[in-house]
Design goal:
About 30% of the residues lie in helices and about 35% in strands. It is built from two helices and five strands; from the N terminus they run βαββββα.
Length: about 100
């Protein structure tokens, strides 16, 4: 499975960013566009999230950055979906900008 990373810089501190990210994944249906069977597992202690769908997996982590926090989304796509890698990257980037600023 090919892996790629989507990064996003947020002006919020890591704690606030994690809360916003958690709200985004649990309260909106935007991730369901990629896969209706998507499930998110959160680890509040480490501020990470594991996302599992029927067609992909992703790990999300938040790191402290100079001016806020940095969100890394490491996506694992099956080989058959690798032609859609660019589209998935663009959509994830748009969603992160919309919900995290």
């Amino acid at each position: 499975m090919p892996k790629f990373t989507v990064e996003h810089q947020s002006n919020s501190n890591p704690q606030d960013t994690f809360v916003k990210l958690k709200d985004f994944f649990t309260k909106t249906n935007e991730m369901k566009k990629f896969d209706p069977k998507v499930e998110c597992t959160f680890n509040d202690a480490t501020q990470t999230c594991h996302i599992k769908g029927s067609q992909f997996k992703a790990d999300v982590n938040i790191q402290t950055a100079t001016a806020g926090s940095k969100v890394n989304v490491i996506v694992d796509l099956p080989l058959l979906l690798s032609p859609f890698k660019g589209k998935v990257q663009d959509e994830l980037t748009k969603m992160l900008k919309k919900h995290l600023g």
